[in-house]
Amino acid sequence: MASEKAGMAAGLALVGSEDEEGRSIEALIGAGDYRQALTHCARAHAMALGKLCMAFTGSQAEAEEMVQETLLAAYDAFPQYRAEGSVRAWLFGIARRLCGRHAEMKTRRESRLRLVHDTRPRPDAGELALEKERAERARAALAKLKPSEREAVVLRFEGGLSFKELSIACGVDEAAARKRVSRALAKLRAELGEE
């Protein structure tokens, strides 16, 4: 019981510190100190943005590049920031859009290359480790989802956004965000079974 209370207190302190950080970033943006605001954004949210971008891209190098692009895009957008939600949700929305564009461009580029000549060796499924196989099945199941559902699931579970933050990042109301996640989870369960 005492450990549960300690865990809840630590969780509340973390949420409180996130709120304080968000308010300090908003104050810096309001004051026009965009460099300092960017520094605070990077310090507070780069790791979470990296996880989110990694979930979207599947590549550490691409994820790091997407985080940098997200922070640069945020810096450029600071003058238009309206503080209609949390800074975190706003940043995740930017990252979601950039990762979507990146995935689209990557798909186009790979399809053009495949048309020219595809010499990449196919991995032998028998040689892959069990964890890699499970990750591939999960990625395949995610790829079968509608883009809006896939984004909602990744933002919710990999990005750790609340449904309210998710609704802001996706530009829908909270009920629609919950519905997207629920539909996506049902499809993933049907696709992956017990996993």
From TrEMBL:
Xref: InterPro entries: RNA_pol_sigma-70-like (IPR039425), RNA_pol_sigma-70_dom (IPR014284), RNA_pol_sigma70_r2 (IPR007627), RNA_pol_sigma70_r4_t2 (IPR013249), RNA_pol_sigma_r2 (IPR013325), RNA_pol_sigma_r3/r4-like (IPR013324), WH-like_DNA-bd_sf (IPR036388)
Domain RNA polymerase sigma-70 region as annotated: residue spans: 43-107
Key words, A-Z: DNA-binding, Sigma factor, Transcription, Transcription regulation
CDD domains according to UniProt: Sigma70_r4
RNA polymerase sigma factor 70 region 4 type domain mapped to chain residues: 137-188
Source species, domain of life: Bacteria
Keyword DNA-binding: yes
Record-level Gene Ontology MF annotations: DNA binding; sigma factor activity
GO biological process assignments: DNA-templated transcription initiation
Pfam families per UniProt: Sigma70_r2 (PF04542), Sigma70_r4_2 (PF08281)
NCBIfam families in the cross-refs: sigma70-ECF
Family to which the UniProt record says this protein belongs: Belongs to the sigma-70 factor family. ECF subfamily.
Official protein name in the record: RNA polymerase sigma factor RpoE
Species for this entry: Chondromyces apiculatus DSM 436
